[in-house]
C-alpha cells in the first residue's frame, strides 16, 4: 500500500487546501496520473500518483486543509485494473466530496478535537495567535467555511461573525475596515503611519456608501485577485516608489532579432523583444547588485542568486513565475525559459516553487497600446522594469559626428524602485546600462 502525502509545495508553504479530486475510490490510476488539485496562497498544483494501482482510500475531503506530509489518499500497488470497480465509485465519489464525520473528543480534551483543525491559511493562524483568538470558536465566511483574516479581526474585536456576502449584495465597509485595521497594526508595530481605510475613508473624509442600483453587478474577488490586491496595497504602503523612464532605440537589437529569429524558431524557441530586455536586465543586475536585494527590518541583503520574475497573463489573472539563476543563462536559455514558464502558467501547470524567490521583475503589458507606466514593485523585491509599446519613430542618428534623421523602433522603459535603499543616481545608472545594451545590440546569440 502506498501512502500519498501532501508534498512540500514551496519553501515557505506548510499546508495546502484540497480544491478538487480528479479520481475516486476504486479508480485504477497510472503512475504520474494527476490525482487531485491542491491550492495554496501561491499557486494551484496537481498532485500526481507516485505509483500505478487502485485508489483504496481518499483521506482528505475537498475543501480540507492538509499540512505538509499529511495523508491524502492510499493506492494499492498490487491491485490489477479489473472490471467491476465502477459500481463502487458513486458512493466513493460522495465520500470524497463530503467531509468525514468528526470523531468523538478524547477524554481530557475539553470537548475539542485537536485533529479537526479549522480551515485557515498560515497567515490567518498567525494573526489569530497574535490576537489571542481561538479559531475553533470562529465561524468561517470563506470558501468551504474557510476562516479569513476578516473573521479573525471581527472575533478579536468581540463582534459576531457575519454570513458571507452574496454576489448581489453591496460590499460591507466593516470588511474593508478590518483588512485596513490588520495592515494598520502591522505598520504601527514598525513605527509607520496609519493608512486610509479602503472603501471607508481617512480622517474627516468618508467615502460615500454604495447604494445598489438596477444593472449594477457586484463581482466578488477571486482568491488570486484577493491575494494580488493585498500584495499591491502592502507594496505601495511599504515601499516609497519612485519611477524613472528611459527611451530606447531598438534598431540594432531589432536587426539582431531579425537575423536569428528563424533559427530560434526551428529550435522551438521564440526570440522576442522580451527575451532581449530580460537578458539586458540580468547583465545590469550583475553590474548593479543593490537592485538584486531585499529590505530587512534595519538592514538590507544583497542576494547571491538572480531569479528574474516575468509577468505572465493567464485565464485566472496575472502571475509572476521566475527564471532561476537567470544570470547563468545565455540569450537562448532565457528565451527558452520564458516560453516554458508562459506555457505552463497558461495551462495551469505552474508550481509554488516557480513563483517563489523572485529577486527582480520584468513586466510586459502586451501589444495593445501603452506609452509607458510605473509598475508596483513585487515585494520583497526593490525594483521592477516595465516595458512600453514598441513604435516606429523618427530619431536623430549620429555617425562620424554627422547627424541624420532615421525611422527606428523605439520603446520607453519605466523602472520603479524602492527609495529606502535605491537612490536616484544608482537607479539612473542601472536603467542607462539596460538601454545602452539594447541600443547597441550587445548580445551573444
Automatic annotation (TrEMBL):
A GO molecular-function descriptor: acetyltransferase activity
Start and end residues of each stretch annotated as Disordered: 82-124, 156-176
Highest taxon in the source lineage: Bacteria
EC number annotated for this UniProt entry: 2.3.1.-
Domain Peripheral subunit-binding (PSBD): start-end pairs: 119-156
SUPFAM superfamilies according to UniProt: CoA-dependent acyltransferases, Peripheral subunit-binding domain of 2-oxo acid dehydrogenase complex, Single hybrid motif
Gene3D superfamilies per UniProt: 2.40.50.100, Chloramphenicol acetyltransferase-like domain, E3-binding domain
InterPro entries xref list: 2-oxoA_DH_lipoyl-BS, 2-oxoacid_DH_actylTfrase, 2-oxoacid_DH_E2_comp, Biotin_lipoyl, CAT-like_dom_sf, E3-bd_dom_sf, PSBD, Single_hybrid_motif
Listed Low complexity bias regions: 82-99
Record key words, sorted: Acyltransferase, Lipoyl, Transferase
GO CC annotations, alphabetized: cytoplasm
Family: Belongs to the 2-oxoacid dehydrogenase family.
Quaternary context: Forms a 24-polypeptide structural core with octahedral symmetry.
Name used for this protein in its record: Dihydrolipoamide acetyltransferase component of pyruvate dehydrogenase complex
Naturally occurring in which organism (per UniProt): Sorangium cellulosum So0157-2
